[in-house]
Amino acid sequence: MAMHEGRAALVLTGGGARAAYQVGVLSAIRELRGARAGNPFPILCGTSAGAINAAALASHVVDFNRAVKHIERIWRNLHVDQVYRVDAPALLGSGLHWGSALFGGWLLRQTPRSLLDNAPLRVLLERVLDFHAIDQSIKRGELYALSVTASGYSSGESLAFFQGSLDIHPWRREQRMGVRTQLQLEHLMASSALPFVFPAVKIHREYFGDGSMRQLAPVSPAIHLGAERILVIGAGRTAEEGRQRAERYPSPAQIAGHALSSIFLDTLAVDLERLARINDTLGLLDPAQRRAAGMPLRQIETLVIQPSQRLDTIAGRHGGSLPRLLRTVLRGLGTMRREGSTLLSYLLFEPGFTRALIELGYHDAMARRAELKAFLRIV
Question: Do 123 and 180 touch, CB atoms closer than 8 A?
């Protein structure tokens, strides 16, 4: 594909604590860019924890290097109690609430909201994000667009809430749409509301949950927002281990981890495969032929960076860093077993794990420095 400038987009996927990996890749990009000024990604798109990282970048978009350092400092020193409550009243209260709902909900009409209370995350984001700065950066042309994806529990639609240049138009496709809005903290809380784990968030007339749910086309918002080059930083896994004999029934943690992996990881590969096919087809036609055929599509340059190691395996080595009471609760679900470490990897907001992921992301990106420099147009 011919190299041209084009407007670059950064797409950050979801994955709870796994999103620390993205920070390592961003740190490598910061190093490769050196002292270059400006924002290399005028379009920022995020989902779930990736939406939080995208918003943090947008908050300091005038100084990309400073923004990355700021985000990395937060992730390197993050603890679970800054994301969700792990005190005894919160954990035991949640257990009692769910137990009473399961056994007496028909009588008491109780509806549990979530397993964990992520009120601390709201406090953290209120402290570190500046939505006014995002708005000003867009008005000054330093940022073209920021989008945050969430999933509607009533409509079943995937909504990309975006804030950006006035020449961007909303869009609608099957089960997904782009909605112009003034992005606020509620959009990030909704986008990162892991199903069952964190409470849904009401925006206007509908409750929303994690944006990775029913997100059939994770790269689509960036394209609709005008991107011609897209860097995708995932937080996925490498190939699954081969089929093995199961000696015991899967634990709740194993089932939950499998479900979350399906939500967070599987649709990205399908969407990228579809984009590659479209690029290949368009590559067979020159621009004049496309216009004559009435094809408004354009080729999109893409680069995807994903973990070279299994993040659940890394999580298994750091599970002991969780607070004792939380470990006890998670052990009851089977989370502390080897087969339950996938769920653990989404919840393990502790320095040992996040720093290991940051280092992995940095080394994975540096291993592909030639591709990254070409994508970033670094000579």
Answer: no
